[in-house]
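User: For my dataset I need records formatted as: sequence, then structure tokens, nothing else. Please produce one.
Assistant:
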Amino acid sequence: MQWRTLAGFRALALAYAVVLYARAEAHYRHPVGGWLVLLVLLAWTAAAPVAYAARRSRGPALGVELALAVGALLATRALDDPARVEAGAQTLPVVWPAAAVIAWALLLGWRGGLAAALCVAAAGVLERGSFAQTTLHNSVLLVLAGVLLGASSTLARGAQRELAASRAAEAALRERERLGRAVHDGTLQVLALVARQTAGSPDPELAGLGRAAAEQERALRTLVSRAPAPRGGGTADLAALLGALAADGVVVAVPAEPVPLAAGRAGELVAAVQAALDNVRHHAGPGARAWVLLEDLGDEVVVTVRDDGAGFAAGRLEDAERQGRLGVRGSIVGRARDLGGTATLTSTPGEGTEVELVVPREAT
């Protein structure tokens, strides 16, 4: 919309310049040259909407438009009567160069608008040959327009991004609620039924199945009830996300204060912790317990996952990798590395395993 509005301003400004030049043509030393300059401006006025429509060509288009604006102003001194120029006669392009200032402001913010305004103002001073009162007024107006329009454009783009993010979050929440209803009516009911019917069973396998069903029910309820983490530049409370992992046999210790972290980084770190807890459930042995500890060290966060399970001998992970089983390397070590951090695994047979994840707070 803003580029269409600018195209309209450019066309009206050129029409105004043509009318004024037609009335003053007789006073010009080189009237044909004046018409040629206006013809070039007409060609750009027609081509500019196409040039600005594609994002890739907007940068070059800004340079072309500013060069034409400055060139048209300087051409006035070469084409018009010197006496008229010194007397402050209207320039050949009149207000058309303001379109370049507006374009720079819209695309590059207030800094771009200011830079273009100063270039056009300098060309106006060179055309006049002195810093007259009218030149000063025009320069101030150009600078104000460039800065204010640029600042407004930046604010408008920010508001559009926030609106788009809000709509995306609202759509994600609606979809989450829909899925939550479907899960509640199906999967959660089945898990709850299995947990109730196997509770207290003398059969160890059935009792274990019941405990697993109860844990998965709690985890799934937490998942569908928790608000989705914001995307992009949003933040999430890592302490709250890790706290949701607490379950039978899993103790989570986090600081009392929130531990804010970029949402994407927090999600990846929590996924690594979940992978470590999955390893405890599947490989640490029956009855193994796990402890998750979060430490906020300012520039980095440290998450430690420790269990009292069976542990494993040195070299077992390397053997698993050679056999193509890359679960630990991909889901734990790989995630920490992608976040610019480290994952350290230590284990002793019969004494459990410890996974320490050290991740910088900011992306490196």
